[in-house]
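Have a think about this chain, C-alpha cells included, and walk me through the fold.
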Amino acid sequence: MDYTFLVLTIPSLGGAALVWGFHRLRLSPLPACIMLGILLTPFKHMLFRDDVAVETVAQAGIVLLMFIVGLEFRLDSLRHMLRPCLLGGGLQAVLTAAAAALLLVPMGADPVTAALTSAGLGCGCAADSAAESRRGG
C-alpha cells in the first residue's frame, strides 16, 4: 500500500494547525514553521529516498523562510531601531559569551573550544532575542 498521500497530508495539516495556533496567539508564523521542521526531521526518511532530495527541499525552505522574514520587516521601523538593537544585541552577545565561557572552562573545555562555543552561543541568543524584541513581544 502506498502511504504517500498520508505522509504528505498529515504534515501539511499539522503545519496549517501550528500556523493557525500561532496566529490565534498573535504570534509570528515563523516559529510555527521552524517548529514543524524540527518535528518532521526524524521522519524525513519516509518522505525522501535520497539526500539530494532532502537538500533540495531544505534549500527551498530557506528561500521561503527568507521571503517570510522579508514580509515581516518594515524598512522605516528597522531604521528607527538600529541603534538600540546594535547596542542591546552586542551587549547581550558579549555577556552571554562571557557567561558561557565561565561555565565551560571549569568543566574541562580547552580555552579555544570554550571561546568559539561561547561566541556562537552569545551571537545566537542575541539574534534570537533581537528578532523577538523587534516583534514587540
